[in-house]
């Protein structure tokens, strides 16, 4: 599964980790995040993320 990076603050969403603070389980692909999920650091929506270069 691909990591995604926030274009605003640089937070990296790693599907292997999920987002425990938002009750997103490890193994959740970025595409499967709820539509109202926001960056845990700066609060922007999914539309402000892009695939991370790996």
From TrEMBL:
Name of a matching Pfam family: Rubredoxin
Cofactor annotation remark: Binds 1 Fe(3+) ion per subunit.
Alphabetic keyword roster: Electron transport, Iron, Metal-binding, Transport
Chain sites annotated for binding Fe cation: 6, 9, 39, 42
GO MF, one annotated term: iron ion binding
Lineage: Bacteria, Pseudomonadati, Bacteroidota, Bacteroidia, Bacteroidales
SUPFAM superfamilies in UniProt: Rubredoxin-like (SSF57802)
Protein name: Rubredoxin
Cofactor(s) needed by this chain: Fe(3+)
UniProt family annotation: Belongs to the rubredoxin family.
Domain Rubredoxin-like residues, every copy: 1-52
GO terms classed as biological process: alkane catabolic process
């Amino acid at each position: 599964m691909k990591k995604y990076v926030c274009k605003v603050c640089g937070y990296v969403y790693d599907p292997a980790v999920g987002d425990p603070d938002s009750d997103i389980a490890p193994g959740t692909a970025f595409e499967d995040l709820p539509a109202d999920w926001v960056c845990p650091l700066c609060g922007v929506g999914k539309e402000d993320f892009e695939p991370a270069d790996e």
